[in-house]
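Thread: Newbie trying to understand structure tokens

Hi all, I'm a second-year student working on a class project, and my supervisor (Dr. K.) asked me to get a predicted structure for one chain before our next meeting. I've only ever worked with sequences, so writing a 3D structure as a token string is new to me. If someone could post the tokens and maybe explain what I'm looking at, I'd be very grateful. Here's the chain:
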Amino acid sequence: MPPMLSRIGAAALFLLCATVSQAASLRVAPTNLELIAPDSAAVLNLHNDAKQPINVQLRVFKWSQVDGVERLEPTSDVVASPPSTQLGPDADYVVRVVRLSKIPVRSEESYRVLVDELPDQSRRKAGTVTLVLRYSVPVFFRNPDAKTPDVSFSLSRARGGLVLTARNNGESRLRLSNINLTQGGKKLGSRSGLVGYVLGGAIMQWPIGSRRSLSGSSVTLKAQSDFGPFNAPVAIKGQ
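---
Reply by user tm_fold:
Sure, no problem. This is what the structure looks like when written as tokens:
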């Protein structure tokens, strides 16, 4: 299976270069899509901030998490229509994201739409490269009766640092951001902004902090989720 092609959320992909010939100009909204069955179609809005046309490519991948690793696989169950387009200067464009599979959504299905602004080789100058922008948009199709996230956390040492593991026994994803770990009133580690998702029935891991040892006292996680701020106990493994 191919590895995760892009980090969660929008990410700029830079090529090594001496100078940049053109700034990225593509904007995509919204940054994620959730559809509750039987809904099967939604839209992404594209906008070109540039003064010249840009070419855009859209691809849909089935998104899963296996043993703490993100996976993206080609799929025909969900499509983006059209899969490519050219946007004129300061132009807007609407792309439909449609679930074609006739199999009912049992719990929650996860996909990612990769939206790439393609470089225009005709405008490339010698000694320069184009900054290329990629958006990775999470798309969820959820059964209204799917079980809510049920996530337990643990902390372990690995590769000279600490690794936070999230195990989701629920049927729908949990989005984590702005996490802080404390033990005995002391900060163990933190990560600002979006940390990632743990999908329903999956396990995910993230490095957090460089502390090499852990005491036996309890660890507390403070974080933000789709449901608001929360605190959670964290089990310690392999002290």
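A couple of things are worth pointing out once you decode it. The CA atoms of residues 220 and 233 lie 5 Å apart. The chain has a mean pLDDT of 86. Feel free to ask follow-ups in this thread.
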